[in-house]
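Why do we care about 3D structure at all? Because function follows from shape, and shape follows, mostly, from sequence. That is the central idea of this module. The next example makes it concrete: a single protein chain, its amino acid sequence, and then its structure expressed as tokens.
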Amino acid sequence: MQLVISEKPSVARAIAQVLGASEKRDGYLEGRGSPVATSKCQRHLEAPTEPTGETGWLVSWCIGHLVELAPTDAYDPRYSKWSYADLPIVPSEWQYRVLPDTKKQFDILDGLMKDSRVESIVCATDAGREGELIFRLVYHLCGCTKPVKRLWISSMEEPAIRKGFDNLLDSVNYDNLYAAALCRAKADWLVGINGTRLFSTLYKGSTLNVGRVQTPTLALLMEREAVITSFKEEKFYTVELKLDGLTAVSGRIKSKTEAEKLRRACLGTSVTVTGVKQTERTDRPPKLYDLTTLQREANRALGYTAQQTLDYLQALYEKKLCTYPRTDSRFLTDDMENTVPALVSAAAVVCGLDAPGEVLASQVCNSGKVTDHHAVVPTRSAAAADLSALPLGEREVLRLVSLALLRAVCPPYRYAETAVVVECAGHSFSAKGKVLLDAGWRTYAELPQDAALPGGLTEGMQLPVEAVRVKTGKTAPPKHFTEDSILASMETA
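And the structure:
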């Protein structure tokens, strides 16, 4: 028999359905997949002992983290009290503990791993750093030594699960991923335990939490706050000329008196066109979403926090409506190029829009820019889903992901930009406008229409000034961080 261990019960059920493990047990599912369902999978696992051509499957789950790094008092009881004299606390040999709330499921997995019927194990936790850590800690704490293969998928759709089982790899290929996850967990422990105790004991009175990520992020917030607090506002003025079909604006003027003087000088006169420059420009479509860019967009456009967006996306993944959420790539792999039109069709259904007339699939596929997982996109299953039954947050995030795919496979947005410079009373004034040449990807973008300038403008032309006004402006400090902008700063910190 083969034991498959996923991260969550919902994922286990989806996998079990594909493998034909439909018999419910306490904490796992069991069944014998048909030769059709499992023949390819068997090539990557130990040969079954049964001569029937069928493979026995046990499918269970971890419920997230079942094992964690042990607390300080596991190393020495005196660490239960915080003391400056005990710092730093650096374990010579790391210890682990089973979380009390999920010990029952850990014991079930322990029993399954030691079951004499189980010949090998498939790690089917989330295909990322954290998923690898969740499985490995359970595997090691159970003292299991049975061979392990890795299921690495980006979609919970049945074809993706089957393909994943057809391409299982030895777990040794993911040792470095596990090492990175364990390193991060230990770094969090060391910084959190020692930093928090250090500052809390030095500055008595309250707990001062220190964290590997939280404290540098707090520093970013404080630096921005200091700039805002010390900022000194300065007024400036501009003069606007209303001409026939366009508005020309001067540069910034520090003195209101000078701005009023210029206004009076221009009133009732004409301007001379001193420059007309037209440039054809092209804006390539935005890339597909990785997790961070999606979190930023959902915060900016919908007001969702980063955690809310991740939770909605995780739910969509488990419902087989979106691909794997925790990705840092904004491209698909080259072998997905033929499937892109079907994904685009599904995205159009989700958005209630027409699909692009031409799908430029090649511009979203680049295996060289994909690491562990490809970009977040809707699945083909999304086209047949009852979207009205989804919670609002999931529905809106799915629409964002779908719109991103529709935009990404479109031609560039092309426009002609015209810059005009006029002179009046010895001062230069400028105006800009755009003329649409090809909407391209902006067909699927809710953006304001660009203003156009009148045609036929040439150097030396005289235009009457219809009205003049002085506008007051103020210099502004940097804005307070939003989740959108703090995520951007954290990415480049």
